Amino acid sequence: MSLPRPAALAVLLALAAPAFAADPDEMLKDPALEARAHALGKELRCLVCQSESIEDSNADLAKDLRVIVREHIAAGESESQIKKYVVDRYGDYVLLRPPVKASTLVLWLGPFALLLTALGAAWLVFRRRGGQPAAPPLTAEEQRRLDVLLKDQAK
Amino acid sequence: MIAELGHFALILALAVALVQATLPMVGAARNQRQWMAVAGPASAAQFLFIAVAFAALTHAYVTSDFSVLNVAQNSHTDKPMLYKVAGVWGNHEGSLLLWITILALFGLAVSVLGRNLPPGLKARALGVQAMISVGFLLFILLTSNPFARLDPAPFNGSGLNPLLQDPGLAFHPPLLYLGYVGFSMAYSFAIAALIEGRVDPAWARWVRPWTLAAWIFLSAGIVLGSWWAYYELGWGGWWYWDPVENASFMPWLAGTALLHSAAVVEKRDALKSWTILLAIVAFGFSLLGTFLVRSGVLTSVHAFATDPARGAFILLLLVVSIGGSFSLYAARAPWLKMGGMFAPVSREGALLFNNVLMATGAGTVLLGTLYPLFADALSLGKVSVGPPFFNSVFLPLMVPMVVAMGIGPMLAWKRGDLAGALLRLKLSMLLALAAAAATWMLQGGSAGPWWAAGGMGLAVWLALGTLAEWAERVRLFRAPLAGLPHRIAVLPRSAWGMTLTHFGLAVFIAGMTASSAWKSESVQTQKIGETVTVAGYAFTLTDAHEVAGPNYSALEGTFTVAKDGRPFAVMRPEKRAYRQPPRPTTEAAIHGTVLGDVYAVIGDADGKGGYVTRLYFNPLVPWMWAGAAMMVLGGLVSLSDRRHRIGAPQRARAKA
Amino acid sequence: MRRSLYLLPVALFLVLAGFLLGGLFLNPRDIPSVLIDRPVPEMNLPALAGRPADSGLASADLKGRVSLVNIFGSWCISCADEHPTLMRIKAQGVVPIHGIDWRDDPAKALAWLQRNGDPYDRVGVDPAPGRTSIDFGVTGAPESFIVDKAGVIRYKHVGPITPKVWEATLLPIIVELNK
Question: How many helices, marked H, and strands, marked E, lie in chain C?
Answer without folding.
Answer: 6, 7
